[in-house]
Amino acid sequence: MPAPLEQADPRTNRTTLDWTEPGAFEVADGVYRIPLPLPLDGLHAVNIYVIDTGEGLLSIDGGWAVAPAREALRAALTSVGYGIGDIRQFLVTHLHRDHYTQAVALRREFGARVSLGVHEQVSLALVRTPAGRSHQTQLDQLVVAGAGAVAARLVAGGFAAGDEDIENLEAPDEWLSPEQAIRVSETRSLHARHTPGHTQGHVVFVDESEGLLFAGDHVLPHITPSIGFEPAPSHLPLRDYLDSLRRVRAMADLVLLPAHGMPGPSTHARIDQLLQHHEDRLQACLDSVGPAGTTAFEVAAKLPWTSRMRSLDDLDPFNQMLAVCETAAHLDLLAERGSVVVSEHRGRRVYQA
Questions:
Q1: Residues 124-137: what's their mean pLDDT?
Q2: Of the given ranges (98-107, 226-235, 240-249), which has the lowest mean pLDDT?
Q3: How far apart are CA 90 and CA 109, in angstroms?
Q4: What Gene3D superfamilies does this protein's entry cite (predicted)?
Q5: Does residue 323 sit in helix, strand or coil?
Q6: What is the DSSP letter of 289?
Q7: 259-314, pLDDT tens digit by residue?
């Protein structure tokens, strides 16, 4: 993943390279950023944002249901005079477990209400089927992309086995409509905005009165979010993502409050970078397609990955999967634009310029 950039907290003007430092950091009046640890090698924390409603707390996202995250949340809330039981509602940006599962676990214990975007219904239903394998879709995509060997290594390592966290993937109390308004207090409201791409049901929350965007994984300051990494991705997740970025770009410029990384003063500035990044990757993919036909795996092997310009072979199998699936998403969008032609050959998707 790209190395983090040095940014300043918009409230305190405090500069840090380590946004994962535990605590509760006030980013606007009555709004606290709380980083919670993740059990991952590459991504070490997720930000949740807790809002004082005057009648308890509302949390944007919940974190991953693991003991260190719960303890970090307890300690952070205690430091500013609250307890976990003060959280009355979770507004969750999307279904990924680092955002959703702890909200469900705490609902079971304290009775908090959990809300999730309505377009996450299909993916959640697939995960919860008796034979649910939450990443089977990605394994199938790898085979079609010509990366069957990567899929085999993932399966051998236990990837896509039955979901061990199924109890924390229960349905929410409320399915949020794409443009739903949420009253937080007498002086504050949030508006959900449907922003598919990272997942089909991803939503961001806009606080127009304070000029804040609770962006989830839609707009991240240091990295680009994975595209369509979910049990039920759309036909063209990259198209969905770019369209969603443009819709948020058309709004007033807002303070960026991301799920991973430090807050930033301009949503517009980061969206412009993300849009340009994907146009550059689309061109790089197009330049790597040969006249005789090329698979997404073969294109991904020609491209550099992360800010360190690593080769595909240098990545671990999980990140190889993300790279190949993202390459396929770019190639499929190029096909939609008419820049490449797609055909099927022995169960693989082949692209020709």
A1: 77
A2: 226-235
A3: 14
A4: Ribonuclease Z/Hydroxyacylglutathione hydrolase-like, Winged helix-like DNA-binding domain superfamily/Winged helix DNA-binding domain
A5: helix
A6: -
A7: 999 999 999 999 999 999 999 999 999 999 988 899 999 999 999 998 788 999 99
Residue 232 has pLDDT above 70, yes or no: yes
pLDDT at 233 over 80: yes
Q: In the chain, where does the domain assigned CATH 3.60.15.10 lie?
A: 7-128+169-276
Q: Tell me if the domain spanning 7-128+169-276 has CATH number 3.40.50.10490.
A: no
Within a 10 A sphere around the Cβ of 164, how many other Cβ atoms? 8
**Inter-axis angle of helices 267-287 and 317-337, to 10 degrees?**
80
Is residue 318 within 8 Å of residue 282, measured between CB atoms?
Answer: no
Q: Where residue 163 falls among pLDDT bands split at 50, 70, 90?
A: low
Q: Which two tokens stand for residue 64?
A: 């991953």
In a 10 Å sphere around its CB, with 0-12 CB exposed, 13-18 middle and 19+ buried, how is residue 286 labelled?
middle
**Measured between alpha carbons, how far is 207 from 188 in angstroms, rounded to an integer?**
7
Tokens of 2: 């790209």
* Nearest by Cα to 93 from 244, 220, 202: 202
Task: Annotate 98-160 with DSSP letters as a single string.
Answer: HHHHHHHHHHHHH--EEEEEGGGHHHHHHHTSTT--TTHHHHHHHHHTT-HHHHHHHHHTTTT
Check: CB of residue 137 under 8 Å from CB of residue 212: no
Helix (H/G/I), strand (E/B), else coil: 279: helix
Buried-exposed string 86-103: b where 16+ CB fall within 10 A, e elsewhere = bbebbbbbbbbbbbbbbb
Q: pTM to 2 decimals?
A: 0.92
Position 162 scores a pLDDT of: 56
Q: Give the model's pLDDT for residue 299.
A: 98
Assign 294 to helix, strand or coil. strand
The fraction of the chain above a pLDDT of 70, given in percent, is 92
Amino acid identity of residue 313, one-letter, is D
What are the tokens at 329? 């998403």
Strands 341-345 and 348-352: antiparallel
